């Protein structure tokens, strides 16, 4: 099966109140773990790729790995640019074979964010590619971007609704109290904002910063209208901890396969647990 737009599964997710996971692909082992979990649970999913990961892997390798995963699995898989910083980066990814892109204009003022997002939507939709927009500022650290908690701004429901109406994005990430990275305590998620926006627009709300959010809050967020949840840090932590355990146990290990195999297994377990929690298993 070829890579698909997120619109291949979003209408079903919205109607049936489940969420599709975006799991960031940082290298081959991440991709293998995510697709193996998807195959086992018959779940659609989204490969998220940040600009930092693109620089690390190279765009050609990134697309080739995702296409191989889609062909092997037969699952509906979207290859999605995460936090795209410009129209040019989004177009570069689309030309290379991405089936979905995010344009993150949240650091612009509201009107400029609408204007720039509309340009991306117009070009992407002409090529059958889905688009995620973002409103409000999500705290935490992702790649080289750091936003302090005091500088994170919650999305205003009335602005989020207008943003969708004017841009026509296929899903909308709104800042509701989550953050990138792991949490020191429990996040304070504004479920009322999610619900108010979700009831007014026909596309899913996106929850960024899904790593470390308590299961009960995830379930509540999905019930309120979240249809896409991003997970990256939990996989990174599981991967690194598995590698660390192998190397601490035996300092003579030098074959990367000896520590990357348990790392991949650890990530499979994380992704499977999220797919079950999100309700996306058996939805492919």
Write the layout of secondary structure elements.
Blueprint: H1 10-16, E1 20-24, H2 28-41, E2 45-50, H3 51-57, H4 59-73, E3 77-84, H5 87-96, E4 100-103, H6 110-126, E5 130-135, E6 139-142, E7 145-147, H7 157-167, E8 171-174, E9 179-180, H8 191-200, E10 205-207, H9 215-224, E11 226-231, H10 233-249, H11 256-278
Parallel strand pairs: 1-2, 1-11, 2-3, 3-4, 4-5, 5-8, 6-9, 8-10, 10-11
Antiparallel strand pairs: 6-7
Average predicted local confidence, pLDDT: 92
The total count of helices amounts to 11
Class from secondary-structure proportions:
alpha/beta
Classify the oligomer. single chain
* Percent of residues in β-strands: 15-25%
Global shape: globular
Largest sheet: 8 strands, parallel, barrel
Indicate the percent of residues in helices: 40-55%
Question: Kindly, what is the distance between the CA atoms of the first and last residues, rounded to a whole number of angstroms?
Answer: 12 Å
* Strand order in the largest sheet: 1-2-3-4-5-8-10-11
Low-pLDDT windows of residues: 145-151
Taken in chain order, the helices and strands follow as HEHEHHEHEHEEEHEEHEHEHH
Radius of gyration: 18 Å
| Strand segment tally | 11
Keywords for this structure?
284 residues, alpha/beta, three-stranded mixed sheet, 11 helices, 11 strands
Give a description of the structure:
- There is one protein chain.
- By secondary structure, this protein is of the alpha/beta class.
- Helices cover 50% and strands 18% of the residues.
- It is built from 11 helices and 11 strands.
- Strands 1-2-3-4-5-8-10-11 form an 8-stranded parallel β-barrel, surrounded by 11 helices. A 3-stranded mixed β-sheet has the order 7-6-9, with no helix packed on it.
- α2 links the parallel β1 and β2.
- α5 runs parallel beside α6.
- About 2% of the residues have low confidence.
């Amino acid at each position: 099966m070829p890579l698909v737009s997120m619109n291949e599964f979003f209408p079903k997710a919205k109607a049936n109140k489940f969420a599709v996971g975006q799991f960031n692909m940082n290298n081959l082992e991440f991709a293998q773990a995510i697709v193996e979990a998807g195959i086992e649970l018959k779940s659609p999913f989204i490969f998220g790729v940040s600009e930092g990961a693109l620089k690390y892997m190279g765009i050609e390798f990134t697309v080739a790995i995702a296409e191989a995963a889609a062909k092997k699995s037969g699952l509906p898989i979207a290859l999605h640019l995460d936090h795209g910083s410009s129209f040019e980066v989004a177009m570069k990814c689309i030309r290379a074979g991405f089936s979905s892109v995010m344009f993150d204009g949240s650091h612009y003022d509201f009107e400029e964010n609408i204007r720039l997002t509309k340009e991306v939507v117009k070009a992407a939709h002409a090529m059958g590619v889905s688009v995620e927009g973002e409103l409000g500022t999500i705290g935490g650290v992702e790649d080289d971007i750091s936003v302090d908690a005091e500088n994170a701004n919650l999305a205003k429901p009335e602005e989020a609704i207008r943003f969708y109406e004017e841009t026509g994005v296929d899903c909308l990430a709104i800042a509701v109290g989550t953050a990138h990275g792991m949490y020191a305590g429990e996040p304070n998620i504004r479920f009322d904002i999610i619900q108010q926006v979700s009831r007014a627009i026909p596309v899913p709300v996106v929850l960024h910063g899904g790593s470390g959010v308590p299961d009960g809050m995830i379930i509540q967020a999905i019930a309120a209208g979240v249809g896409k949840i991003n997970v990256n840090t939990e996989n990174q932590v599981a991967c690194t901890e598995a590698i660390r355990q192998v190397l601490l146990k035996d300092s003579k290990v030098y074959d990367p396969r000896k520590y990357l195999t348990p790392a991949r297994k650890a990530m499979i377990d994380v992704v499977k647990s999220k797919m079950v929690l999100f309700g996306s298993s058996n939805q492919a």
